[in-house]
Amino acid sequence: MQQSNINELIQFRRQLHQYPELGYQEFKTSKLICKKLDELGVSYQSGLAKTGIVAEIKKGAGKCIALRADMDALPIVEATGLDFSSKNKGVMHACGHDVHTTILMGAITQLINQDFRGKIKFIFQPSEEGVNGDTENKSGGQRIVELGILKDVDYALALHVHPLLEVGKLGYALGNALACTGNFSIQVRGKSGHAGAAPHLAIDGILVATTLIQNLYTIVSRNINPTKTGVVSVTMINGGQATNIIADNVIIKGTIRALDMEEYDLIIQRMNKIIKGVSESFGAAIDWSIDLFYPSLINHSNVHKILKSVGKTVFGEEEVLEVSPMLGGEDFAFYSREVPSMFYFIGAKNTNEPCYFLHHPKVVINEDCIQYGVDFLTKSALKLMLSSD
Fold it and tell me: 354: cis peptide before it, omega within 30°?
């Protein structure tokens, strides 16, 4: 890419970064993308899954490749101190989706002028980070799949920036690369009472909740095979009104992770039994639900085999690294269960210390990764187009 094109993409990224939007609310982001596509003369559909966009370049008969980027930001107050920090208070691109969107736009600018036979779909997807008020608790990725966008797709590909991996490196894991993810909510309904004069007449919601949490934390250590992986993390607890009143209602929220569905299902089974047991023990009513679910993301070895040479060309043979699976969740998992797919991590480490990981208010993405990402997506799409499976 010419330096002028790179500079233009960086400015595009910074504009996205300054005006981040939460899932299913990416209206300005979508408008900016559509404006750019209009300037490039690329056809597209907008308003998919509320704010999503699917652009398309078709040049005759051939394979169909889907390239995907997520657009949404997080409810985080940015503390990077960057000149182009978020102007939307309390919302930040702390997971690099602004960079993903920029890389995908860059790939469009490169592929417009390439000679190939087939079709490439460029999916600008909303709401990867969660369901964000969706009436059916579905993420943007799940909605895109349900709309049938992938029905004619032969391969799907996505990138994710990694702020602890050096620029110029590419990471991947095969098979179950990212975790089955379930975010849960538990509501404890006890009985309020006087904390000093009559605690015996109350059902202490906080005691019930803490007992429940302690028992939930035994699941991984005592029910999951130690050679397997699983996580149960309680991340929010809220209850109580005053120091002299025993709390009745307590809300507990958290997340479940496992690489394999077998372990995920086991965690769910144990949670059901523990919640029932604690409820009966204390005489408290306890309701719970899974508010969000992503299956594990499957990276297909046959797709990586096709793209291996592209990785070597763009990054160098020693810079393409097979890494361990992570227990992060990612709704590209829904794509990976529809069509052969690969999800790669692209190095985006900032040169200044300290470096922070994703979802941190001080995380800074090294913009030098953009050129690598554009080059890799462009060459990968063309390589997949020519593959004979």
Answer: yes
pLDDT of residue 33: 99
As a whole number of angstroms, the distance between CA 272 and CA 160 comes to 34
The helix (run of H) or strand (run of E) holding residue 140 is helix 140-146
The rounded distance, in Å, linking the Cα atoms of 38 and 33 is 9
pTM of the complete model = 0.94
Would you say 154 and 67 are in contact if contact means Cβ atoms under 8 Å apart? no
> What angle (nearest 5°) sits at the alpha carbon of residue 334, between those of residues 330 and 337?
125
Q: Output the CATH code of domain 3-178+297-386.
A: 3.40.630.10
Residues 247-269 as b or e (16 or more Cβ within 10 Å = b): bbbbebbbbbbbbbeebbebbbe
Q: Tell me which amino acid residue 56 is.
A: E
Residue 81, classed as helix, strand or coil, is coil
What stretches in the chain show pLDDT beneath 70? 389
Start and end residues for every CATH 3.40.630.10 domain found in the chain:
3-178+297-386
Burial of 308 (0-12, 13-18, 19+ CB in 10 A): middle
User: What topology is assigned to 180-294 in CATH?
Assistant: Alpha-Beta Plaits (3.30.70)
